[in-house]
Amino acid sequence: MTDATVRVEHATRTSRFGTVLWIVLLVVLASVPLWGDRSDMRLLSEIFAYVALATLWNLLAGYAGMISVGQQAYVGLGGYLMFGLAIYGGVHPILAIPLAGLIAAVLSIPVAGLLFRLRGHYFAIGTWVIAEVFRLLASQISALGGGSGTSLPASIVIAMAPGRQAREVMMYGAMLLLVAAIVGACVLLLRSRYGLALTAIRDNELAARSCGVDVARTRLLVYVATACGTTMVGGLIFLQKIRISPDTAFSVNDWTAVVIFITVIGGIGRLEGPILGTIIFFLFRQTLSDLGSVYLLILGAFSIAVMLISPRGLWGFLSDRYGLQLFSLARRVRHRS
Amino acid sequence: MPAILAFENISKRFGAVVIAEDIDLSLAQGEALGLIGPNGAGKTTLFGIATGTIAPDAGKVLFEGQNITGLKPERRCRAGIARSFQVPQPFDGMSVFENVVVAAAFGTGQSEHGVYRGCFELLEKCGLADKANRTAGALTLLDRKRLELARALATQPRVLLLDEVAGGLTDEECAVLVELIKDVRQSGVSIVWIEHIVHALLAVVDRLVVLHGGRLIANGEPEAVIQQPSVQEIYMGIPADG
Amino acid sequence: MAEPLLDVRALDAHYGDFQALFGVSMRVGAGQVVSVIGANGAGKSTLMKCIAGLIRSRRDAILFNGAEVGDVPAYDMVARGVALVPEGRRLFGSLTVEENLLIGGQHGRPGPWSLARVFDLFPILRERRNVAAPSLSGGQQQMVAIGRALMANPDLLLCDEISLGLAPAVVREIYARLPDITASGMALMIVEQDIVQALAAAQQVYCLQEGRVVLEGSAASLTRERIAAAYFGVRSAQGSHHGAA
Amino acid sequence: MELLNILLQGVLVGGLYAMFAAGLALIFGVMRLINIAHGDFIVLAAYLSLIATEGLGLGPLTSLVIVVPLMGVVGYALQRGLLNATLGKDLLPSLLVTFGLSIIIQNGLLQVFTADSHKLSAGAIEVATIKLAEGLWVGVLPLVQFAVAVAVIAGLHLLFYRTALGRAFRATSDDPTVAQLMGLDNRKVFAWAMAISMGVVAVAGVFFAIRANFDPSIGPARLLFGFEAVIIGGLGSLWGTLAGGIILGVAQAIGAHIDPGWQLLAGHFAFLLLLLLRPQGLFPKVFG
After folding, report:
1. DSSP letter string over D70-101?
2. ipTM > 0.85?
3. pLDDT for position A64
């Protein structure tokens, strides 16, 4: 049996098409600043932010089986770290983003140490307690406006880049780069041996242990990586808003409820789910925007229905039925005897 | 040469029901040991204690002379103890091939690409090559048992613990399984095999142990153990004088 | 024989994709004691679960008191008069001995079996009535499991592997009590690996092997050799059993 | 003496947290489910009581006569109609469905009652106080509320250990399959457990509405207090949840004394500290 006879393919017919699709999409999106106006860029940035947050939450809950309802902790942390570093650290806001991610990664290790003592439902609510602690601590920091929050001083905003358009393009580019990096990192992670370990743990933790997978270390790795990514997205979100307060930074509805509904409706446990889910969410919100917050109620009801009827979401349903895969993550073994 | 795997005064009870009572049992390097006994006799629990998924109330588990009683299951697997589960535990959402790759990559510590070819050859040996890309959740019970065996072998174990892998097989399938286990023995792997299909067991093992009510009631040459009156009475209820 | 209390007709049973029973047919008359023997994995417990309603099967595959009950759920079978002593006893860990017995009768039927009568049958339980179930010995737990089923005053008591994990002396002590149970006219179906007790207690015997009835007859008419052959699945004169399996 | 007063306030509010926790512990004990919308149902009960008092002119305490059975029916229907379908090996469905419910209730209440806060007035009792000792006063209402909390927990304990329904809960929790052999239909047993849990939620909701301002968005905070009391008290131990509630109440009272902004934080820190020291909680599991 020579080596040549056994080949493992990551790509499938549709995923080759998918790879082309993503490249084209990236090129088009990168060109938006050339022809798009400020509101186009702002809307797209918001879409990128939700794709990134949903992809990260999906990695944590859909792949590693750690269902958190507290990721708003890191979104808010990102915002506050970015404000802190920019205002008091004199760091350029864009550079403050990766720095905030690093700080959050280190901080998330002791937090994980506490949270991993809880299992299942208890872990979920434990993450909510952590988010509340972050929110309450933030409202104690008078230097950043305490309970009512603060704004990024005009001097820092202006110093970011010469001219308003340049600033818009910089922030848009940063968010596009971040979401591409996060989704790309997930693809690489899932194609690596850690990706195998993650899905093995999700499917059957006991069997994964018996196959030599170090469950605790893998879970910690995913939790820290997700915390880092979520923090960076949070930083960029609040850089664009240039205003932050404990209630907006750590909002359950904006940064957890919507993200969970997006992932569940789109398709949990698949990389394409959050992307499809975000598109559906924004179509939903634009059409129902005049109804005020009732759209959140409808979104909640809709995601409950999806959860009960097709727990694998829209993309799960489509890919099971038509074998669609837009990311080449498969490990299909080809063999010529 | 110390026994490759040894139980020393192992005791375990769930509530008042005794599962293991001061059990001493050791497996020599390269030996194949059969383990039989009526249901609920504690056989599968012994495997749980050997692989670290169940903690004994008392006693020690030794691997190549070292005490591994406190070692986590994943460390024991990497040390060379592999196990197939009585009730198959596949990674449902992953393909058969991916199931085996997980065991090979993490059981031996090799890189993922390094184990691809070995995994495919293993699937061929276990009769699963044609189902390599199928999701494990959709397999029939018999194929899931084969996958259990393939995954255990993929970790390149020094000690292989088999838990009723022959149940439900036809005679032909049983013969194929026996040959496969004999091959595994040739490569120097020591085996402990829990099985109810006694004739399959007898074709492979050097020694037979009977466990009942948490105690070893027989331990020796297979044919002699089967004829032993106390085994007959316990195992099948035929009275000792019968 | 008059209309049988229990009539199993060509019952098939599946665990997901794995078929455990192939066209099993058997009958139990009112007040009769029937034993079902067979090696491990022969489908004995599956048969019991089908009759007790834990596994749903074809509506007409099982008749009880003349009614088709194949698809009746377990929680409705108790009221119809079928009670199962499950394999491995499975007492309720957070309930005391007395509570385990009381819950047995909670949705049962009126009849002779009450707390007092169960304590008469197994006196040791009267002393240990307020003890939590897990702290009993294996034999005592088996007595509670049987008492729990009796409290429902069934017409048919299904006993699944009473001897499981018990010392032979304890098994003999429990089987010695069965006549007191059948004296009240209750039918008994015993599933056992322990052939001696199963044969001694029963009038009719069925032997299951790999999901099929391979031997059927009155206890007296069956010789040890025929039972051992059927029991072990050793190729008897009729050639291989496996056919299309 | 002032410290004593603070501790006393903490203990008394602990009774309310224990009632938040008792409903959670009951459901988790019987069917391993956590209702993420538990806090929002407490707020729903508060609004039902608001309707009963303003609409029918009843006093808040008398409104219990309507709100408790009503919430019981809501609980039974919720379990039979929706939550039974989410039970199973994977905890994602039940968690996501109850999370969705939480969002639906909050936004539903927002539509009907707008975002401004309300408070039920229980009349003179709110201001009546009793002098325990020189300089140590305690409000009659907090005392009544604590007594009710103890009574509710005692009632639940009696229900669990002295009644047939309680036996059914524990048996179904131990072994749902064999419980069916006893003639128990799991779906109904779980529905009764949720009905009783919602009954306790109703009592908690009404007393909370009398004690403090409430608006549609404060449900989750109640869930977290209840959850923390359950964990501090130990999983599934009813009396443990009372102790857990008291410890949480005292921690918050001390925090508030140091700095008003630190009230909630002190409670969370007490929870996290205890989680670190004794992951399985103070009181070992009593039932289920």
Report:
1. HHHHHHHHHHHHTGGGG-SS-SHHHHHHHHHH
2. no
3. 87
